[in-house]
Amino acid sequence: MKDPAPASPPSSPAPPQPGAPAQALLTRLKPLATQHLAAAAPAASPGVPPCVLFLALGHEAARAQVLCVTGADFEAAWAAAAAAVEHAARRLPAAPAWLRIDRVAQVQALPWAQLQALLGQVKRNYLRSGIAFDAGFTHALLEQELGANAILYDGDHEACTPNAANLRA
User: Which residues, other chains included, contact 121 with Cβ-Cβ below 8 Å and sequence gap of 6+?
Assistant: First the structure.
């Protein structure tokens, strides 16, 4: 009688993928995001994507990394967000612990002089909205980024004043 073949060692689970925790966060958040953000589309503006999502991805040991994605609709932007989050999560020094998602709900195009006049009516560093410097949101900052980086804080003025040094940083 032949000896049976030796039993193969139990298979170990596949090693975790670097973006897996981020994808798990996205999976958990999608129903809520769909319910609360999918219909929050701003009025159509020339050159502005129909859906703009900002995602802040991070963990307790470092400042969040903010990503901006766009799409023709919420589902397309969500698909772009999933790819961007997976890519960004691979560069984080630790697995992401949290993920915040914001959708642009209002867009108001202003010439620079008009924006400066509007900022002049707001106490320094207290603007309650984000700013995009182009219609495609390639160069855009959330309200939290403006405050955290003192983008609109110039110690010489009481009103919001763009801080050129912090804008370059």
Answer: 159
